UniProtKB/TrEMBL annotation:
It is found in: Cell membrane. The lineage of its organism: Eukaryota, Metazoa, Chordata, Craniata, Vertebrata. Residues 324-333 have a biased composition (Pro residues). Interacts with KCNMA1. Residues 202-255 form the LRRCT domain. Its main location: membrane. InterPro entries: Cys-rich_flank_reg_C, KCNMA1_auxiliary, Leu-rich_rpt, Leu-rich_rpt_typical-subtyp, LRR_dom_sf. It is a single-pass membrane protein. GO terms for cellular component: voltage-gated potassium channel complex. GO terms for molecular function: potassium channel activator activity; transmembrane transporter binding; voltage-gated potassium channel activity. It comes from Molossus molossus. Pfam families: LRR_8. This is Leucine rich repeat containing 26. Keywords: Cell membrane, Disulfide bond, Ion channel, Ion transport, Leucine-rich repeat, Membrane, Repeat, Signal, Transmembrane, Transmembrane helix, Transport.
Amino acid sequence: MLSPSFLSWLSRPLLLLLLLSPWPIWAQAPAEVPPTGTPGSRDCPEACACAPGGQANCSGRALPTVPEGLSLRVRALLLDHNRVRALPPGAFVGAGALLRLDLRENGLRRVHARAFWGLGALRQLDLSANQLEALAPGTFAPLRALCNLSLAGNRLARLEPAALGALPLLRALSLQDNELSALAPGLLAGLPALNALRLRGNPWACGCALRPLCAWLRGHPRPAPEAETLFCLSPGRLAPSPLTAFPDAAFSHCLQPLSARDLAVIYALGPVSFLASLAVCLALGSVLTACRARRQRAAARCPRRPQNLGPGWASPAHSGAVGVPPPPPGSAY
Ligand SMILES: *[C@@H]1O[C@H](CO)[C@@H](O)[C@H](O)[C@H]1NC(C)=O
Ligand SMILES: *[C@@H]1O[C@H](CO)[C@@H](O)[C@H](O)[C@H]1NC(C)=O
């Protein structure tokens, strides 16, 4: 039996652990927000300089991690030119009112899928000039208010639609200067408000995988200012081709993705053809049986050539009663 005092003794270090944890997701209870306050007070991370508008300037301070002490009064967090190599889960918890986050030039390599939890108000996120090679699915999912995202100057060779997710308000996306050769088909579909897409400086490969991007560029001819200067490289050719030179007809040889109707037909065809062949077999079987029974009845009525019946035809009357005669000799069952 555990006594209450034992429990409280047990929970004390646990509580301490929770409070000291660098990523206190559970400690997200919104602190009281004083309407006014002096800049550089306890609401400002120690390593940074805070301005009255809610700007925490932590630029260029060789910080290895996101500074602690973020509060709801921080509206813009300038963390550019530091040494934040990885963002752990809940890295910005406590800064739920953040509108702008600048993480340029940190040598950032890893962003945990839950790093941006709690940043539902964020509108501008700059992750440019880092070392990102991949982004986990759901990384940007909490950023429902995001308008402007820069991933320029990283090492992204692939960008899955699940990493961006659905960002209903995203207007500007920069993927410039990465290692992308194609955009995944669903990627642009989740970004209905997008009108500025920066794509230069990627090794786009001319081919079917480029179809969604070319279609998007045709649908947004003006807002993508550098569309004319985008090129893709064909495997066999040396000269790059401009992306805008591909009409949709150029992709006519590409396999169309199956529509919902096609899929429905395919799924229905399986069971239907199975049932149909079953019915055909049953019908054929009963016709055969009926024919045989008829022949037997005819043979029973005029038993003129009994020598033709093999040993299996023991008693015509008996087999007629059963309905299914035994096989004649030599028939392969
Ligand atoms: C942030 O602080 C640095 C000096 O630490 C300064 O050079 C820079 O201009 C500041 N940035 C802004 C936006 O105030
Ligand atoms: C997005 O942010 C970048 C700087 O971070 C700025 O240069 C650009 O104009 C912004 N775009 C939009 C559409 O707000």
